[in-house]
Amino acid sequence: MNILELRNITRQFPGVTALKDVDFQLRAGEVHALVGENGAGKSTLVKIITGVLQPTQGELLYEGQPVVWHDARDSIQRGIAAIYQDPAIFPDLNVAENIFMGHQPHHKTTRKIYWRQLYLQTEELMRSLNVHIKATDRIRGLSIAERQLVEIAKALSINAKIVIMDEPTSALSISESKELFRIIADLKRQGVSVIFISHRLEDIFQVADRVTALRDGTHVGTRNIGEVTLDGLVQMMVGREVTNLFPKIQVEQGREVLRVEGLARKGEFRDVSFQVREGEILGLYGLVGAGRTEVAKAIFGMTPPDRGAISIYGEPATIRKPQDAIAKGIAYVPEDRDKEGIILNMNVTSNITLPILRQFSRLGWLDNKGERKTAQEYASMLDVKSAGLHQHVIGLSGGNKQKVSLAKWLASQAKILLFDEPTKGIDIGAKSSVHRFISELAAKGYAIVMISSELPEILGMSDNILVMHEGLIKGYFSRKDATQEDILTTALADNA
Protein backbone atom coordinates (compact mmCIF):
# COMPACT_ATOMS: atom_id res chain seq x y z
CA MET A 1 0.00 0.00 0.00
CA ASN A 2 1.27 3.46 -0.91
CA ILE A 3 1.26 5.98 1.92
CA LEU A 4 2.30 8.73 -0.51
CA GLU A 5 1.81 9.06 -4.25
CA LEU A 6 2.74 11.87 -6.61
CA ARG A 7 1.15 11.81 -10.06
CA ASN A 8 2.36 13.81 -13.07
CA ILE A 9 3.96 16.48 -10.90
CA THR A 10 5.22 19.51 -12.80
CA ARG A 11 6.78 22.57 -11.20
CA GLN A 12 7.70 25.61 -13.24
CA PHE A 13 9.65 28.71 -12.25
CA PRO A 14 10.08 31.75 -14.50
CA GLY A 15 12.00 30.45 -17.51
CA VAL A 16 12.72 27.06 -15.90
CA THR A 17 10.85 23.76 -15.59
CA ALA A 18 12.24 22.14 -12.44
CA LEU A 19 10.00 19.05 -12.62
CA LYS A 20 8.06 17.64 -15.55
CA ASP A 21 5.39 14.93 -15.22
CA VAL A 22 7.15 13.17 -12.32
CA ASP A 23 5.57 10.12 -10.69
CA PHE A 24 6.71 8.88 -7.28
CA GLN A 25 5.26 6.30 -4.90
CA LEU A 26 6.25 5.61 -1.30
CA ARG A 27 5.02 2.44 0.37
CA ALA A 28 4.20 2.19 4.05
CA GLY A 29 7.24 1.01 6.02
CA GLU A 30 9.77 1.18 3.18
CA VAL A 31 13.04 3.01 2.71
CA HIS A 32 12.91 4.65 -0.71
CA ALA A 33 16.10 6.30 -1.99
CA LEU A 34 15.89 9.38 -4.23
CA VAL A 35 18.96 10.04 -6.39
CA GLY A 36 20.03 12.41 -9.13
CA GLU A 37 22.68 14.95 -9.99
CA ASN A 38 22.51 18.47 -8.54
CA GLY A 39 19.75 20.25 -10.44
CA ALA A 40 17.88 17.01 -11.19
CA GLY A 41 14.85 18.17 -9.19
CA LYS A 42 15.24 16.28 -5.89
CA SER A 43 14.99 19.37 -3.67
CA THR A 44 11.97 20.69 -5.57
CA LEU A 45 10.22 17.33 -5.20
CA VAL A 46 10.89 17.30 -1.44
CA LYS A 47 9.56 20.84 -1.12
CA ILE A 48 6.34 19.77 -2.83
CA ILE A 49 6.00 16.71 -0.57
CA THR A 50 6.47 18.91 2.52
CA GLY A 51 4.22 21.79 1.35
CA VAL A 52 6.98 24.37 0.98
CA LEU A 53 6.07 24.58 -2.73
CA GLN A 54 2.88 23.74 -4.59
CA PRO A 55 3.05 21.96 -7.94
CA THR A 56 2.21 23.87 -11.11
CA GLN A 57 0.21 20.82 -12.12
CA GLY A 58 -0.23 17.26 -10.93
CA GLU A 59 -1.75 15.51 -7.95
CA LEU A 60 -0.51 14.49 -4.51
CA LEU A 61 -2.20 11.61 -2.63
CA TYR A 62 -1.56 10.91 1.05
CA GLU A 63 -2.90 7.74 2.65
CA GLY A 64 -4.94 7.17 -0.48
CA GLN A 65 -6.64 10.58 -0.49
CA PRO A 66 -5.90 13.64 -2.66
CA VAL A 67 -4.41 16.45 -0.56
CA VAL A 68 -3.24 20.01 -1.04
CA TRP A 69 -0.65 21.36 1.38
CA HIS A 70 -0.97 25.12 1.77
CA ASP A 71 2.29 25.33 3.70
CA ALA A 72 4.75 23.16 5.61
CA ARG A 73 2.56 23.16 8.74
CA ASP A 74 -0.11 21.18 6.91
CA SER A 75 2.29 18.35 6.08
CA ILE A 76 3.83 18.35 9.58
CA GLN A 77 0.39 18.04 11.18
CA ARG A 78 -0.30 15.03 8.98
CA GLY A 79 2.96 13.33 9.98
CA ILE A 80 5.57 14.26 7.37
CA ALA A 81 8.96 15.34 8.77
CA ALA A 82 12.09 16.43 6.90
CA ILE A 83 15.64 16.20 8.27
CA TYR A 84 18.02 18.29 6.22
CA GLN A 85 21.79 18.13 5.77
CA ASP A 86 22.20 21.11 8.12
CA PRO A 87 19.89 20.37 11.09
CA ALA A 88 17.43 23.18 11.82
CA ILE A 89 18.03 23.37 15.54
CA PHE A 90 18.66 26.00 18.21
CA PRO A 91 22.22 25.52 19.53
CA ASP A 92 21.72 27.36 22.84
CA LEU A 93 18.59 25.41 23.82
CA ASN A 94 18.68 21.91 25.24
CA VAL A 95 17.64 18.66 23.59
CA ALA A 96 14.11 18.57 25.02
CA GLU A 97 13.40 22.19 24.08
CA ASN A 98 14.52 21.53 20.50
CA ILE A 99 12.53 18.34 20.08
CA PHE A 100 9.26 19.85 21.24
CA MET A 101 9.73 23.35 19.80
CA GLY A 102 6.28 24.55 18.68
CA HIS A 103 4.36 21.65 20.20
CA GLN A 104 5.36 21.55 23.87
CA PRO A 105 2.93 19.85 26.26
CA HIS A 106 1.03 22.76 27.84
CA HIS A 107 -2.17 23.91 29.59
CA LYS A 108 -4.79 24.70 26.95
CA THR A 109 -5.96 27.89 28.62
CA THR A 110 -2.92 29.43 30.30
CA ARG A 111 -0.41 27.95 27.75
CA LYS A 112 1.86 27.05 30.68
CA ILE A 113 4.42 24.47 29.60
CA TYR A 114 4.47 21.19 31.51
CA TRP A 115 8.25 20.92 31.85
CA ARG A 116 8.32 17.63 33.75
CA GLN A 117 6.17 15.99 31.09
CA LEU A 118 8.35 17.47 28.34
CA TYR A 119 11.54 16.00 29.82
CA LEU A 120 9.93 12.62 30.49
CA GLN A 121 8.67 12.39 26.91
CA THR A 122 12.12 13.34 25.61
CA GLU A 123 13.78 10.61 27.66
CA GLU A 124 11.21 8.11 26.38
CA LEU A 125 11.98 9.09 22.78
CA MET A 126 15.71 8.66 23.36
CA ARG A 127 15.13 5.22 24.88
CA SER A 128 13.02 4.23 21.86
CA LEU A 129 15.96 5.15 19.62
CA ASN A 130 18.41 3.39 21.96
CA VAL A 131 20.65 6.46 22.11
CA HIS A 132 22.30 7.98 25.17
CA ILE A 133 21.65 11.70 24.91
CA LYS A 134 20.27 13.51 27.94
CA ALA A 135 17.16 15.68 27.63
CA THR A 136 19.02 18.51 29.37
CA ASP A 137 22.12 18.44 27.13
CA ARG A 138 22.78 21.66 25.23
CA ILE A 139 22.72 21.22 21.46
CA ARG A 140 25.92 23.24 21.10
CA GLY A 141 27.86 20.50 22.87
CA LEU A 142 26.61 17.66 20.66
CA SER A 143 28.36 16.15 17.65
CA ILE A 144 26.84 16.38 14.16
CA ALA A 145 25.70 12.76 14.44
CA GLU A 146 24.01 13.43 17.79
CA ARG A 147 22.28 16.50 16.37
CA GLN A 148 20.85 14.34 13.60
CA LEU A 149 19.52 11.92 16.21
CA VAL A 150 17.80 14.87 17.91
CA GLU A 151 16.20 15.71 14.55
CA ILE A 152 14.97 12.11 14.23
CA ALA A 153 13.55 12.28 17.77
CA LYS A 154 11.83 15.54 16.78
CA ALA A 155 10.20 13.73 13.85
CA LEU A 156 9.01 10.93 16.14
CA SER A 157 7.62 13.50 18.60
CA ILE A 158 5.00 14.49 15.99
CA ASN A 159 4.25 10.81 15.33
CA ALA A 160 5.75 11.06 11.86
CA LYS A 161 4.60 8.51 9.32
CA ILE A 162 7.10 9.71 6.70
CA VAL A 163 10.64 10.89 7.46
CA ILE A 164 12.68 12.53 4.71
CA MET A 165 16.47 12.39 5.22
CA ASP A 166 18.54 14.71 3.01
CA GLU A 167 22.26 13.75 2.85
CA PRO A 168 22.17 12.30 6.39
CA THR A 169 25.60 10.61 6.20
CA SER A 170 27.61 13.36 4.46
CA ALA A 171 29.36 14.45 7.68
CA LEU A 172 29.27 11.13 9.58
CA SER A 173 32.04 8.66 10.28
CA ILE A 174 31.68 5.01 9.29
CA SER A 175 30.57 3.97 12.79
CA GLU A 176 28.13 6.88 13.04
CA SER A 177 26.64 5.97 9.65
CA LYS A 178 26.14 2.38 10.82
CA GLU A 179 24.31 3.67 13.90
CA LEU A 180 22.07 5.79 11.68
CA PHE A 181 21.33 2.77 9.48
CA ARG A 182 20.34 0.82 12.60
CA ILE A 183 17.89 3.53 13.59
CA ILE A 184 16.45 3.65 10.06
CA ALA A 185 15.89 -0.11 10.25
CA ASP A 186 14.09 0.37 13.59
CA LEU A 187 11.88 3.09 12.08
CA LYS A 188 11.03 0.76 9.22
CA ARG A 189 10.04 -2.02 11.67
CA GLN A 190 7.74 0.50 13.38
CA GLY A 191 6.00 1.13 10.05
CA VAL A 192 7.58 4.53 9.39
CA SER A 193 8.41 5.27 5.74
CA VAL A 194 11.75 6.91 4.90
CA ILE A 195 12.76 8.90 1.83
CA PHE A 196 16.58 8.70 1.77
CA ILE A 197 18.52 11.21 -0.36
CA SER A 198 22.28 10.79 -0.72
CA HIS A 199 25.17 11.30 -3.12
CA ARG A 200 26.95 8.43 -1.34
CA LEU A 201 25.56 5.71 -3.55
CA GLU A 202 27.14 2.92 -1.50
CA ASP A 203 24.92 3.98 1.44
CA ILE A 204 21.81 3.53 -0.69
CA PHE A 205 22.65 -0.11 -1.33
CA GLN A 206 22.95 -0.67 2.44
CA VAL A 207 19.72 0.95 3.52
CA ALA A 208 17.13 1.24 0.70
CA ASP A 209 14.39 -1.11 -0.50
CA ARG A 210 13.80 0.80 -3.73
CA VAL A 211 15.45 3.67 -5.56
CA THR A 212 14.08 6.35 -7.86
CA ALA A 213 16.35 8.35 -10.17
CA LEU A 214 15.60 11.85 -11.46
CA ARG A 215 17.44 13.51 -14.33
CA ASP A 216 16.85 17.05 -15.59
CA GLY A 217 13.54 17.25 -13.75
CA THR A 218 12.13 14.02 -15.17
CA HIS A 219 11.51 10.58 -13.70
CA VAL A 220 14.07 8.16 -15.21
CA GLY A 221 12.98 5.04 -13.38
CA THR A 222 12.27 3.24 -10.12
CA ARG A 223 13.98 -0.07 -9.29
CA ASN A 224 14.07 -2.55 -6.46
CA ILE A 225 17.52 -2.20 -4.93
CA GLY A 226 18.38 -5.82 -5.74
CA GLU A 227 17.70 -5.22 -9.44
CA VAL A 228 20.23 -2.43 -10.01
CA THR A 229 24.02 -2.25 -9.88
CA LEU A 230 26.12 0.75 -8.88
CA ASP A 231 27.10 1.34 -12.51
CA GLY A 232 23.50 0.99 -13.61
CA LEU A 233 22.35 3.51 -11.02
CA VAL A 234 25.02 5.99 -12.09
CA GLN A 235 23.91 5.61 -15.71
CA MET A 236 20.28 6.28 -14.70
CA MET A 237 21.38 9.46 -12.94
CA VAL A 238 23.71 10.96 -15.52
CA GLY A 239 22.49 9.40 -18.78
CA ARG A 240 25.90 8.03 -19.59
CA GLU A 241 28.62 5.82 -18.17
CA VAL A 242 31.05 7.52 -15.79
CA THR A 243 33.94 5.30 -16.75
CA ASN A 244 36.67 7.11 -14.88
CA LEU A 245 35.58 8.60 -11.58
CA PHE A 246 39.20 8.97 -10.44
CA PRO A 247 41.16 10.22 -13.48
CA LYS A 248 44.58 10.16 -11.82
CA ILE A 249 47.45 11.42 -13.98
CA GLN A 250 50.80 9.88 -13.15
CA VAL A 251 53.24 12.73 -12.53
CA GLU A 252 56.96 12.78 -11.89
CA GLN A 253 57.21 14.70 -8.65
CA GLY A 254 59.54 17.66 -8.34
CA ARG A 255 61.15 19.48 -5.46
CA GLU A 256 59.70 19.75 -1.97
CA VAL A 257 57.20 22.61 -1.70
CA LEU A 258 55.67 22.31 1.79
CA ARG A 259 57.20 20.84 4.94
CA VAL A 260 55.38 20.64 8.28
CA GLU A 261 57.36 19.63 11.38
CA GLY A 262 56.03 18.91 14.88
CA LEU A 263 52.86 20.96 14.38
CA ALA A 264 50.57 20.96 17.44
CA ARG A 265 47.51 22.75 18.74
CA LYS A 266 46.20 21.97 22.22
CA GLY A 267 43.10 19.78 22.26
CA GLU A 268 43.14 19.27 18.48
CA PHE A 269 46.33 17.61 17.19
CA ARG A 270 50.02 17.09 18.06
CA ASP A 271 53.35 16.11 16.52
CA VAL A 272 52.09 16.37 12.95
CA SER A 273 54.91 16.20 10.38
CA PHE A 274 54.84 15.66 6.62
CA GLN A 275 56.07 17.07 3.33
CA VAL A 276 54.49 17.59 -0.09
CA ARG A 277 56.33 17.85 -3.40
CA GLU A 278 55.52 19.48 -6.73
CA GLY A 279 53.00 17.31 -8.58
CA GLU A 280 52.06 15.33 -5.49
CA ILE A 281 48.57 14.73 -4.12
CA LEU A 282 48.93 13.86 -0.44
CA GLY A 283 45.76 12.26 0.88
CA LEU A 284 44.86 12.95 4.50
CA TYR A 285 42.40 10.42 5.87
CA GLY A 286 40.79 9.88 9.25
CA LEU A 287 37.40 9.54 10.85
CA VAL A 288 35.39 12.57 11.94
CA GLY A 289 37.23 14.21 14.86
CA ALA A 290 40.66 12.86 13.88
CA GLY A 291 42.05 16.39 13.50
CA ARG A 292 42.45 16.60 9.72
CA THR A 293 40.55 19.87 9.19
CA GLU A 294 42.23 21.41 12.23
CA VAL A 295 45.67 20.73 10.70
CA ALA A 296 44.65 22.38 7.42
CA LYS A 297 43.28 25.44 9.23
CA ALA A 298 46.49 25.73 11.24
CA ILE A 299 48.64 25.67 8.09
CA PHE A 300 46.38 28.33 6.55
CA GLY A 301 46.57 30.53 9.65
CA MET A 302 42.87 30.36 10.58
CA THR A 303 43.73 28.78 13.93
CA PRO A 304 47.51 29.17 14.40
CA PRO A 305 49.38 26.21 15.94
CA ASP A 306 50.85 26.36 19.45
CA ARG A 307 54.16 24.95 18.24
CA GLY A 308 55.87 23.45 15.24
CA ALA A 309 57.43 24.76 12.03
CA ILE A 310 56.25 25.29 8.46
CA SER A 311 58.69 25.64 5.55
CA ILE A 312 57.90 26.58 1.95
CA TYR A 313 60.47 25.74 -0.73
CA GLY A 314 62.94 25.17 2.11
CA GLU A 315 62.43 28.59 3.68
CA PRO A 316 60.87 28.98 7.18
CA ALA A 317 57.37 30.51 6.99
CA THR A 318 55.65 32.36 9.81
CA ILE A 319 51.87 32.06 9.36
CA ARG A 320 49.67 33.63 12.02
CA LYS A 321 46.69 34.61 9.87
CA PRO A 322 45.22 33.68 6.43
CA GLN A 323 46.76 36.77 4.82
CA ASP A 324 50.21 35.38 5.70
CA ALA A 325 49.33 32.05 4.07
CA ILE A 326 47.95 33.69 0.92
CA ALA A 327 51.11 35.79 0.62
CA LYS A 328 53.14 32.55 0.79
CA GLY A 329 51.09 30.93 -1.98
CA ILE A 330 48.86 28.71 0.19
CA ALA A 331 45.13 28.31 -0.54
CA TYR A 332 42.51 26.51 1.55
CA VAL A 333 39.25 25.22 0.04
CA PRO A 334 37.15 24.46 3.15
CA GLU A 335 34.73 21.64 3.83
CA ASP A 336 31.86 24.03 4.59
CA ARG A 337 31.93 25.97 1.32
CA ASP A 338 28.70 27.90 1.98
CA LYS A 339 29.96 29.38 5.25
CA GLU A 340 33.72 29.54 4.72
CA GLY A 341 34.49 29.06 1.02
CA ILE A 342 32.23 31.47 -0.85
CA ILE A 343 29.99 34.48 -0.19
CA LEU A 344 26.52 33.37 -1.22
CA ASN A 345 25.04 36.81 -1.85
CA MET A 346 27.89 37.94 -4.10
CA ASN A 347 28.08 37.10 -7.78
CA VAL A 348 30.46 34.71 -9.52
CA THR A 349 32.88 37.48 -10.53
CA SER A 350 33.16 38.96 -7.03
CA ASN A 351 33.75 35.55 -5.46
CA ILE A 352 36.49 34.54 -7.89
CA THR A 353 38.41 37.82 -7.65
CA LEU A 354 38.00 38.38 -3.91
CA PRO A 355 41.54 37.28 -2.86
CA ILE A 356 43.16 39.39 -5.60
CA LEU A 357 40.91 42.46 -5.56
CA ARG A 358 43.90 44.77 -5.06
CA GLN A 359 45.08 43.84 -8.55
CA PHE A 360 42.07 45.62 -10.05
CA SER A 361 42.28 48.76 -7.93
CA ARG A 362 43.41 51.92 -9.73
CA LEU A 363 43.62 55.06 -7.56
CA GLY A 364 40.69 53.88 -5.50
CA TRP A 365 38.61 52.83 -8.54
CA LEU A 366 37.83 49.25 -9.50
CA ASP A 367 38.80 48.03 -12.97
CA ASN A 368 35.53 46.18 -13.61
CA LYS A 369 36.50 45.12 -17.13
CA GLY A 370 39.77 43.55 -15.97
CA GLU A 371 38.03 41.90 -13.03
CA ARG A 372 35.38 40.33 -15.28
CA LYS A 373 38.02 39.16 -17.76
CA THR A 374 39.95 37.34 -15.03
CA ALA A 375 36.77 35.85 -13.55
CA GLN A 376 35.69 34.64 -16.99
CA GLU A 377 39.07 33.01 -17.56
CA TYR A 378 38.92 30.93 -14.39
CA ALA A 379 35.17 30.23 -14.58
CA SER A 380 35.74 28.83 -18.09
CA MET A 381 38.77 26.85 -16.92
CA LEU A 382 36.61 25.01 -14.38
CA ASP A 383 33.50 24.91 -16.60
CA VAL A 384 31.35 26.76 -14.05
CA LYS A 385 27.74 26.48 -15.23
CA SER A 386 25.73 29.60 -14.38
CA ALA A 387 23.39 32.16 -15.90
CA GLY A 388 26.46 34.38 -16.23
CA LEU A 389 29.18 35.99 -14.15
CA HIS A 390 26.55 38.31 -12.70
CA GLN A 391 24.64 35.42 -11.05
CA HIS A 392 24.78 35.21 -7.25
CA VAL A 393 26.41 31.93 -6.24
CA ILE A 394 23.54 31.10 -3.86
CA GLY A 395 21.62 30.05 -6.96
CA LEU A 396 24.27 27.61 -8.21
CA SER A 397 24.29 23.85 -7.71
CA GLY A 398 26.62 22.34 -5.11
CA GLY A 399 29.11 21.25 -7.75
CA ASN A 400 29.26 24.69 -9.35
CA LYS A 401 29.63 26.38 -5.96
CA GLN A 402 32.63 24.15 -5.35
CA LYS A 403 34.08 25.09 -8.74
CA VAL A 404 33.74 28.80 -7.88
CA SER A 405 35.51 28.11 -4.58
CA LEU A 406 38.34 26.41 -6.49
CA ALA A 407 38.50 29.15 -9.14
CA LYS A 408 38.94 31.81 -6.48
CA TRP A 409 42.17 30.30 -5.25
CA LEU A 410 43.55 29.41 -8.66
CA ALA A 411 43.15 33.07 -9.62
CA SER A 412 45.32 33.95 -6.61
CA GLN A 413 48.23 31.99 -8.19
CA ALA A 414 48.64 29.84 -5.08
CA LYS A 415 50.93 26.83 -5.53
CA ILE A 416 50.01 24.92 -2.35
CA LEU A 417 46.37 23.80 -2.34
CA LEU A 418 44.64 22.42 0.77
CA PHE A 419 41.39 20.72 -0.30
CA ASP A 420 39.06 19.78 2.59
CA GLU A 421 36.38 17.30 1.42
CA PRO A 422 36.49 18.69 -2.15
CA THR A 423 33.54 16.60 -3.40
CA LYS A 424 31.31 16.63 -0.31
CA GLY A 425 27.63 16.97 -1.18
CA ILE A 426 28.08 17.09 -4.97
CA ASP A 427 26.77 14.60 -7.49
CA ILE A 428 28.79 11.91 -9.19
CA GLY A 429 29.13 13.78 -12.50
CA ALA A 430 30.49 16.86 -10.73
CA LYS A 431 32.76 14.63 -8.63
CA SER A 432 34.38 13.23 -11.73
CA SER A 433 34.90 16.76 -13.06
CA VAL A 434 36.47 18.00 -9.79
CA HIS A 435 38.71 14.92 -9.59
CA ARG A 436 39.91 15.49 -13.15
CA PHE A 437 40.72 19.10 -12.40
CA ILE A 438 42.64 18.26 -9.20
CA SER A 439 44.66 15.69 -11.13
CA GLU A 440 45.41 18.25 -13.85
CA LEU A 441 46.59 20.75 -11.23
CA ALA A 442 49.01 18.17 -9.86
CA ALA A 443 50.28 17.55 -13.39
CA LYS A 444 51.02 21.27 -13.66
CA GLY A 445 53.24 21.11 -10.56
CA TYR A 446 50.87 22.21 -7.80
CA ALA A 447 51.43 20.65 -4.36
CA ILE A 448 48.10 19.35 -3.07
CA VAL A 449 46.88 18.13 0.31
CA MET A 450 43.46 16.46 -0.08
CA ILE A 451 41.39 15.71 3.02
CA SER A 452 38.58 13.22 2.49
CA SER A 453 36.32 10.91 4.47
CA GLU A 454 35.69 8.79 1.37
CA LEU A 455 38.16 5.93 1.11
CA PRO A 456 37.62 5.33 -2.63
CA GLU A 457 38.47 9.00 -3.25
CA ILE A 458 41.60 8.83 -1.10
CA LEU A 459 42.77 5.61 -2.78
CA GLY A 460 41.86 6.75 -6.27
CA MET A 461 43.43 10.22 -6.19
CA SER A 462 46.39 10.17 -3.79
CA ASP A 463 50.08 9.57 -4.47
CA ASN A 464 50.72 9.10 -0.76
CA ILE A 465 48.32 8.81 2.17
CA LEU A 466 48.56 9.95 5.80
CA VAL A 467 46.09 8.47 8.29
CA MET A 468 45.14 10.38 11.44
CA HIS A 469 43.51 9.17 14.63
CA GLU A 470 42.66 11.38 17.62
CA GLY A 471 45.01 14.17 16.58
CA LEU A 472 48.01 11.98 15.73
CA ILE A 473 49.40 10.67 12.46
CA LYS A 474 49.12 6.91 12.79
CA GLY A 475 50.16 5.69 9.38
CA TYR A 476 51.79 6.57 6.06
CA PHE A 477 51.07 4.63 2.86
CA SER A 478 52.33 4.97 -0.68
CA ARG A 479 49.78 4.65 -3.49
CA LYS A 480 51.04 1.22 -4.58
CA ASP A 481 50.97 -0.23 -1.04
CA ALA A 482 47.70 1.28 0.22
CA THR A 483 44.66 -0.95 0.73
CA GLN A 484 41.24 -0.04 2.02
CA GLU A 485 41.56 -2.55 4.88
CA ASP A 486 44.93 -1.25 6.08
CA ILE A 487 43.86 2.41 5.98
CA LEU A 488 40.59 1.77 7.79
CA THR A 489 42.28 -0.42 10.42
CA THR A 490 44.84 2.36 11.04
CA ALA A 491 42.12 5.02 11.29
CA LEU A 492 40.18 2.95 13.85
CA ALA A 493 43.00 1.51 15.95
CA ASP A 494 44.21 3.33 19.07
CA ASN A 495 47.69 1.87 18.80
CA ALA A 496 48.11 1.52 15.07
UniProtKB/TrEMBL annotation:
Official protein name in the record: Ribose transport ATP-binding protein RbsA
Q: Which PANTHER family does this entry report, sorted A to Z?
A: CARBOHYDRATE TRANSPORT ATP-BINDING PROTEIN MG119-RELATED, D-ALLOSE IMPORT ATP-BINDING PROTEIN ALSA-RELATED
- Coarse class of the primary localization is membrane
Q: GO: which molecular function terms? A: ATP binding; ATP hydrolysis activity
Q: Name one Pfam family in it.
A: ABC_tran
> Keyword set for this entry?
ATP-binding, Cell membrane, Membrane, Nucleotide-binding, Repeat, Sugar transport, Translocase, Transport
Localization terms from the record: Cell membrane
Q: Which GO terms describe its cellular component?
A: plasma membrane
Q: Could you tell me which residue ranges the ABC transporter domain spans?
A: 4-241, 252-495
Task: Please indicate if the UniProt record lists Transferase as a keyword.
Answer: no
UniProt cross-references to InterPro entries, sorted A to Z = AAA+_ATPase, ABC_carbohydrate_import_ATPase, ABC_transporter-like_ATP-bd, ABC_transporter-like_CS, P-loop_NTPase
Output the SUPFAM superfamilies linked to this UniProt entry. P-loop containing nucleoside triphosphate hydrolases
